[in-house]
Design goal:
five-stranded antiparallel β-sheet; disordered C terminus; mainly beta; single chain
Length: 189
């Protein structure tokens, strides 16, 4: 309980610091400077940083993420119910895409320095399309964007169905498709 005459101020569910105690270091973080562990079934790692882990984000309406993907790795389809995501490719080559509310697919191949937007609430995915690791950094316009994993909600991690889905998704990298080589296919790069 706060002392008499003292008030605790909460914004978006998190306690705000007393303005007289704020330092420049409150706005700096190293939480995204290391690659994640790629030794898993999906060969990918996503490190999401919100105001909970980095208090300098509190009240700014922002979160950020680092995604590392090994060759032939994938970030499975998911959505962020409370945020749009702007993703910057720091290294490597990735295929990214999302589905709009009518089921229309928007998909592109991206390389170093390119940016792609995933609109709020829409199911999206990332596949490493290159021969080396890829790294992306994202900014999301909510301090609590949420993550709804589509496949995790449908299958257990040891499911034969999930393993089959992964195998089919990883075939993208084996097809050798370019931005212009998708005529007649049900998707576009």
């Amino acid at each position: 309980m706060a002392a008499q005459g003292e008030r605790n101020v909460f914004m978006n569910g998190l306690l705000c610091k007393d303005p007289s105690t704020i330092l420049a270091s409150d706005f700096k973080t190293l939480l995204l400077n290391h690659a994640g562990d790629l030794n898993n079934m999906f060969r990918s790692s996503v490190n999401m940083v919100t105001a909970t882990e980095f208090p300098g984000l509190n009240t700014l309406g922002l979160a950020m993420a680092r995604t590392d993907i090994a060759p032939s790795g994938v970030v499975l389809p998911h959505s962020h119910p409370r945020a749009s995501e702007m993703m910057f490719v720091h290294g490597g080559s990735v295929v990214v895409g999302f589905f709009d509310t009518n089921g229309r697919q928007f998909q592109k191949t991206l390389g170093d320095g390119e940016v792609f937007i995933f609109p709020r609430g829409l199911v999206h995915y990332i596949i490493n399309y290159g021969f080396g690791p890829s790294t992306t950094f994202s900014v999301l316009n909510s301090q609590n964007p949420g993550v709804v994993g589509i496949t995790h909600g449908m299958f257990t991690t040891d499911s034969d169905v999930l393993e089959g889905l992964m195998a089919r998704m990883l075939k993208f990298g084996e097809m050798g498709l370019s931005d212009n080589g998708t005529a007649g296919l049900p998707w576009t790069f």
